[in-house]
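Final report, closing paragraph on structural work. Over the funding period we assembled a curated collection of sequence-structure pairs, and we close with a single example.
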Amino acid sequence: MKREGSTPRFLTSAFHLHTCFSPRSLWLDILFQMPTNDLLPVALTIAGFDPSGGAGIIADTKTFTAFDCFATAAITSLTFQNTKGIRGAAHQTAETVRAQVLPVIEEFQVAGAKTGMLPTREIIQEVARLFRETELPAPIVDPVLRSTSGYDLIEEDALHALIKELMPLARLITPNIPEAEHITGLVIKDEEGMIRAAHAMREMGAHAILVKGGHLKSRDEGGSVRDEK
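Its predicted structure, as stored:
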């Protein structure tokens, strides 16, 4: 007699039969029996956690997956926010960030890496050390400084460490206009200002710069300016 709440035996058998002979099941069996990085390139993001999913590691991992990469991540800060604004943040330590990254690179050969919110000088120095001392590829650095709602996401002394220690290691840096202004001290009002800021960041040690123009008042002036050595 069937117990209340249990699955009927014939349904269980049918489910097992479907599962055993499903092409999708076979594909999943193969996937999880093989090293993941043999199938997909592994991408690593080192960034903050936005619980609303609009930015940070959730947005990064969605992007990695959309481009057929296997996503890995290390959290630098837990932010308390929704899509309307940030109410606070609890930062990780340099040690906990390193402790997250090392097991990933021990198992996987990371093909691409990026950084986002790096809120403290100690975290930036540790992240730079990881890129110098391990086989991690040169990162794309998104110098996240302030949220759209105006919340500071990096301590003031951390910006100096980002410029001096991490920027020269980057394959590409991708500041928006307010970030480019903060890094260079320049005022950007148009595309020429974006180009001047890109040249200034090259002189500060960056190898390639992508200045995002979404903050320009006129859509006709918007766009992106890239400068490379």
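Residues 1-35 have pLDDT under 50 and may be disordered. The first helix runs from residue 9 to 21. We thank the funder for supporting this effort.
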